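Justification of computing resources. Each target in the renewal requires a structure prediction run like the one illustrated here; the chain below, 200 residues long, is used simply to show the kind of job we budget for.
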Amino acid sequence: MPASAATPATTTIMVFGDSLSAGYGLSQDAGWVSLLKKRLQTQSPVHLINNSISGETAVGGRNRIEEALKIHRPDIVIIELGGNDGLRGASIESIRDNLEAIIEACQRNKATVLLAGMQLPPNYGIAYTQKFQDIYPQLAKRHRLKLVPFLLDGFGDKREFFQSDGIHPNADAQQRIVENVWKVLRTMLKSQQEVAHGGT
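Resulting structure tokens:
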């Protein structure tokens, strides 16, 4: 069959996150996931699912990942979790273990994982914030994952890009998040589509 006659395979992406991905405090179409969805409409067939819940934790995600994978059968999962656990002072070990369980569930279900790294405000103490920040590259290395080193890179320390609570990015920050994710995701999509087309 000629390549032009073949039906392009649809790549399903599931964003599995907390309020940063659920668009807390923003209009429905203003969050970074919605903006990414608009960008993907210009790409080869891609189906984007936002399975993010405001207030979600890594342990909460661990409890619901299997069902989400069963329902949506994603090819790529963007995991954006752990921030709420860190803000609540959860142990580094528990955060790491729960994120790792989510990653392993995705891999068992043949999904490629993009892990979004997070950082905590400095008032949580140097030792804790550094150990928390290190969770993400450590897991990415151990499980050979693609990594966005810091989801809020480039503006995480700029007050004007946050809502009044100082935690949730405002509408002006959302496109910046898209760019941080897109730098990594675009290479994943290219690889995914090459595999779908038999390496051509």
